[in-house]
Design brief:
single chain, 274 residues, alpha/beta, Ribosomal Protein L4, Chain: A, 2 domains, six-stranded mixed β-sheet, two-stranded antiparallel ribbon, 26% helix, elongated
Length: 274
């Protein structure tokens, strides 16, 4: 059985406890990648250009020999053009409408009809979650991901769920040796590139994930700390446990969450009663 450190609300490492079977799954990076990318794809919003974009021009040009307003024998390209001015049978044209002209349509524009959603089998999705759970209690993987801690805090007493104030939660993190982690996630950097102008100007780190057994006061308290996520155990997914498809996120479980994992047999295939 996999064992993990048990911590009291005072920040003391008291003992090691046995974890349920979900934490014994071997690391499957390929399945974790599939599950995370499927979640991201299903969050994506469809977009596309206006159907008439680049086509709002009165264009016409003849390629025949003796037609009025024709391009034959003029030494010009035979693309659709709009007339800017004329003198008798001599015209001043500019290219329009065609994909290779200024102001023309795009050759292959994004279409709002495109389906971004991805499917993943339930067995693979559950296996990916179990694999990410197993990675979250392996100290070498958690350190490799960049998290800073003195001793891996995996399971905390249920008193943690009663914390109502954000400052009390920050004090608890400092007691269990996560002061360096709080400093790491407090650094916010400006994104390099065009993304600065597209609603994603800043980049920040992912910090600890807190897994609780049910609705509690801690959910509001933890939501005020940037980089810290909190989730009820039955709503866990691969993206929360392995942000960016990188397994080994620093995860703190309450006793109640561990009990629910074991009692309800979460993220295993449900047996159909005959």
């Amino acid at each position: 059985m996999t064992k993990a450190n048990y911590i009291s609300i005072n920040g003391n490492f008291e003992k090691q406890i046995e974890l349920p079977e979900q934490f014994e799954e071997s690391l499957r990076v390929d399945l974790i990648n599939r599950a995370v990318l499927a979640i991201r794809a299903n969050k994506r919003q469809q977009y596309g250009v206006n159907e008439r974009a680049g086509k709002r021009y009165a264009v016409s040009i003849s390629k025949k020999r003796r037609d009025y307003k024709g391009s034959y024998g003029k030494g010009i390209s035979r693309v659709a053009k709009k007339t800017m001015s004329r003198s008798g049978e001599n015209f001043s044209w500019v290219g329009a409408f065609a994909a290779n002209t200024v102001g023309g349509r795009k050759a292959y524009p994004p279409m709002s009809e495109r389906i971004w959603k991805q499917k993943i089998n339930n067995k693979e999705r559950r296996l990916a979650i179990r694999s990410a759970l197993g990675a979250s209690v392996k100290e070498e993987l958690v350190r490799k991901r960049g998290h800073k801690f003195e001793k891996l805090p995996s399971v905390v007493s249920n008193d943690l769920e009663n914390i109502k104030k954000t400052r009390d939660l920050i004090e608890f993190f400092k007691k269990i040796g996560l002061k360096g982690e709080l400093e790491r996630i407090s650094v916010v950097k400006i994104r390099a590139g065009v993304g600065k102008t597209r609603g994603r100007r800043y980049r920040s780190k992912k910090g600890p994930l807190i897994v609780v057994g049910g609705e509690c006061a801690l959910i509001n308290a933890a939501s005020n700390i940037k980089g810290v996520d909190i989730v009820i155990v039955n709503r866990l997914n691969a993206e929360l446990l392995a942000p960016g498809c990188h397994p080994g996120r620093l995860t703190i479980f309450t006793e109640k969450a561990i009990e629910r994992l074991k009692k309800e047999n979460l993220f295993f295939e449900k047996k159909v009663k005959k």
